[in-house]
Amino acid sequence: MSAVSKTVFVGDSLTEGGRWQEWFPELEAVNLGVGGDTTEGLIERLDEVAAEQPDTVVLLIGTNDVANRRAVEHVVRNIETILVTLRNELPDARILLQSVLPRGREYAEFVKEINRHVWQFAATVRAHYLDLWPVMAEPDGELNPAYTEDRLHLNDAGYEAWLSELRPAIERVQDLPPASRPIRLPDLSELGNA
Predict the structure, then answer these.
(1) Is 58 exposed, middle or buried (0-12, 13-18, 19+ CB in 10 A)?
(2) Which positions fall inside the SGNH hydrolase-type esterase domain (predicted)?
(3) What's the mean per-residue pLDDT of the chain?
(4) Number of structural domains the chain divides into
(5) Residue 61 belongs to what domain range?
(6) Torsion angle of the four alpha carbons 74, 97, 90, 3, in this order, in degrees rounded to the nearest 10
(7) Rounded distance, CA 54 to CA 28, Å?
(8) Is residue 105 part of a domain?
(9) Can you give the pLDDT at residue 177?
(10) How many beta carbons lie within 10 A of that of residue 108, not counting itself?
(11) In this predicted model, what pLDDT tens digit does every residue of 128-182 receive, in sequence order?
(12) Among 116, 118, 6, which residue's Cα sits nearest to residue 61?
């Protein structure tokens, strides 16, 4: 049948801590998670993502921006920049953007606001969106204490809860045909005066 799909998992320590190849043996899984990474850090290393030429990009970023008290608009703009850059660099890739995960309840409204904005933006660059909030958050917006020891990083139960949503999402995304290449219009400034 077809070649094994190369799937790049991109993000911060939550992604870095994942055993993606073990959890997705049917894929060629590449872990590009970097502990402590922010949206700015990821923007600076997007060429590393593009160089992998993945069939699918699975993205989770933003929680460290929240901890650094970046403004909602700042985080949203950076995630939008990441999505636009990935779409331009990888026109045929499937992109799955995941919602920023809950942390402590004091961050809940802030994180929900980021997620509302990026969810609306994702479709504009043909990216798919996976809302992890329902499975990961308590009613008050706290990361479910069963899934973490420090209100941020996930334990095995936390990764299992994440995978319960991520696995079917990746399967759905990869069942879709690759995005067709956008038609590139000529740059009129290069054509001279006609």
Answers:
(1) buried
(2) 9-161
(3) 91
(4) 1
(5) 6-175
(6) 160
(7) 9
(8) yes
(9) 62
(10) 18
(11) 999 999 999 999 999 999 999 999 999 999 999 999 999 999 999 988 665 544 4
(12) 118
On whether residue 31 sits in a domain, the answer given is yes
How much is the pLDDT for 191?
Answer: 47
Of 122, 132, 126, 131, the C-alpha closest to 176 is 126
**pTM of the shown model:** 0.89
143 backbone dihedrals φ, ψ, rounded to 5°:
-60, 130
For position 179, what pLDDT does the model report? 53
What's the rounded Cα separation, in Å, for the pair 57 and 127?
Answer: 10
H/E stretch holding 32: strand 28-33
List residues bridging with 30 in a β-sheet: 8
The CATH number linked to 114 is 3.40.50.1110
Q: Would you say residue 168 lies in a domain?
A: yes
Q: Within its chain, how far is the Cα of 176 from the centroid?
A: 18
pLDDT of 175: 83
Buried b (16+ CB within 10 A) or exposed e, 24-45: beebebbbbbbeebbbeebeee
What is the C-alpha R_g of the chain?
A: 17
User: Would residue 188 count as lying in a domain?
Assistant: no
Give the integer Cα–Cα distance in Å for 98 and 100: 6
